[in-house]
Amino acid sequence: MSNAETPRTGLKRDAFGVPGILFFVLSAQAPLTSIVGAACLAIAMGNGAGAPGAYLAVGLVVILFSVGFTTITRHLDTRGGFFAVIRAGLGLRTGAGGSQLALLSYNAVQFAMYGLFGASTAGLFGRDAGFTSPWWAWSLAAIALVWFLGSRKVELGARVLAVLVAFELLLLVAFAVGVLASRGLGSLDVAGSFGPSAVLAGAPGVAIMFAIASMFGFESTAIYSGEAKDPKRTVPRATYIAVTLIAVFLAFVTWMLVAYYGAAQVQAQAAQDLGSDPALFALAPLNDVLGSWAGTAADALLCTSLFAGVLAFHNMITRYFHAMAGSRLFPAVLERTNRHQAPANASAAQSLAACVVIACFAVLGLDPVAKLFSWFSGLAVATLIVLYTLTSVAVIAYFRRHRVEAGVWATTIAPGLSTVLMLGILTLVLNNFGVLTGGDTVTVVLLLGTIPLGFAFGWGRVRAAASAPAPAADLA
Predict the structure, then answer these.
(1) Which helix (H) or strand (E) holds 390?
(2) How far is CA 257 from its chain centroid?
(3) What 3-state DSSP class applies to 446?
(4) What is the four-CA torsion angle of 239, 469, 402, 396, rounded to 10 degrees?
(5) DSSP class of residue 186?
(6) How far is it, in rounded angstroms, from Cα 8 to Cα 357?
(7) I want to staple 183 with a disulfide (CB 3.0 to 4.6 A). Which of 118, 187, 393, 449 is the partner?
């Protein structure tokens, strides 16, 4: 992006600090959705009582990735997120390909969450109010509200997310504390959930996939660097806090679920609930520990959690559009901002894309959960891991050419280990992709085929952007 921004293309400066960025990140990760929506699947289909250990292990890998990622953010203008890092390390063409993978991943997970939001909200009103409504109507209503908030001051979106995330976090903390108080420290089986044999039991790859999905979006800390206060300090601090907080929190709450059922019985119970209603695996303990109001509250908060998630991803996607347009990889109209200094045109374009996807699934009569949510969430996870791997390689390449950091841990060793571990996780994801998406071979091939196609599209966009300005100068 040009350094000489005009009021029509510049985002608002100093809009928020570490807390504001944290709420964007936590909203994208949708903690309640991770527990109510994913815990049953990770335990039943994955490694049983060892699922909490898988969450913690993935958190450690992501922290390792963050070492190189946060180090390079001190030397680059990272408003383009992964695009900025990959471009700086591996060149414009690879960076452009990476930018398309980021957009594919973020759009895919947002579309998936719109499907689950529509189904969850329609179900909530059907059960509690006797009001029957189509899922797609709620999805479209959410798209309209997200577009409105995404076109206004970014602080407004941060405040909305803060309220929604706070309620779901408080509910989950109350449940975890309740289980801990009723069971007592002596009854907790640490080895049964965090020991190596427990973590590697069954199908650990499936649990790892759900853990990766639950931590989706932590890297968005860098995307808001242009709007953050003191980004050189704010972005790394927010990244480490977000990764550590979500990994420990999800591992702890999932462990309390295991403690509630018992390490020896939890997988059988999860498998039973998986055959009827996976949400019951978490909602039934909530009702039992906190009272009947907790299940009803969780049912409603699941909908607000999903809404917070789609709003957070909308903000991330529109800032990618803004950065890509600033580098002439997308039409210049997407760089323009409105009187709120929000990327209004990018917001409208992203909302229109979501409408098209929702409309297609509605017209074809495809299930919003079994098809839309499972297909697109699986695609998002696979694409994101490819992106993490590219980014780690780019960090190493950048610091080999630019000797601006003295130590080798942050510039070579940590990103090198991250690359190896991410490739291992990618292998697990690809081997279990059919299980994750519930699709047949043709569906799996079509979904995974969009990853190289997306990268190739970005690579080819560079030719159309031959007149783009040079990469942003180092900030060091």
Answers:
(1) helix 374-401
(2) 23
(3) helix
(4) 50
(5) G
(6) 30
(7) 187
- On the CB side of 96, CA atoms within 13 Å amount to 22
Cα separation of 127 and 269, whole Å? Answer: 24
Of 170, 454, 120, the residue nearest 303 (C-alpha): 120
Q: In terms of C-beta density within 10 A (0-12 exposed, 13-18 middle, 19 or more buried), how is residue 340 classed?
A: middle
Q: Say if CB 451 and CB 104 are below 8 A apart.
A: yes
CA–CA gap between residue 266 and residue 276 (Å, rounded): 16
Closest CA to 312 of 18, 112, 29, 2: 29
**3 state DSSP class of 276:** coil
Q: What is the pLDDT of residue 362?
A: 95
Tokens of 29: 């990760």
Q: Which of 311, 235, 341 is nearest to 22 (CA)?
A: 235
CB 137: neighbour CB atoms within 10 A? 14
Count of CB atoms situated within 10 Å of the CB of 349: 19
Question: At which residue do the structure tokens 């601006």 appear?
Answer: 404
Phi, psi at residue 176, to the nearest 5°?
Answer: -60, -45
Q: What one-character-per-residue DSSP string does 414-444 give?
A: HHHHHHHHHHHHHHHHHHTHHHHH---HHHH
In terms of Cα–Cα distance, which of 109, 35, 110, 112 is closest to 381?
Answer: 109
Say how far apart CA 109 and CA 294 lie, in whole Å: 27
Give me 3's structure tokens.
Answer: 């350094």
Alpha-helix residue ranges (DSSP H) falling in 215-343: 231-261, 266-274, 280-290, 292-326
**Among the listed residues 372, 391, 393, the one whose alpha carbon sits nearest the alpha carbon of residue 383:** 391
Spatial distance between the Cα atoms of 385 and 61, rounded to a whole number of angstroms: 12
Is the CB of residue 379 less than 8 Å from the CB of residue 110? no
C-alpha 213/C-alpha 425 separation (Å) is 12
What span, in angstroms and rounded, lies between the C-alpha atoms of 164 and 306?
Answer: 10
DSSP character at residue 224: G
pLDDT in tens, 211-258: 888 777 776 666 655 555 666 667 777 778 888 888 898 999 999 999
pLDDT of residue 6: 47
18-461 CATH: 1.20.1740.10
Where are the chain's structural domains?
18-461
Tokens of 197: 């044999």
53 φ, ψ (degrees, to nearest 5): -65, -35
Query: How far is the C-alpha of 107 from the C-alpha of 321, rounded, in Å?
Result: 12
Tokens 């979006």, residue located: 217
80-112 per-position pLDDT tens digit: 678 888 989 999 889 889 989 989 998 999 999
- DSSP, res 476: -
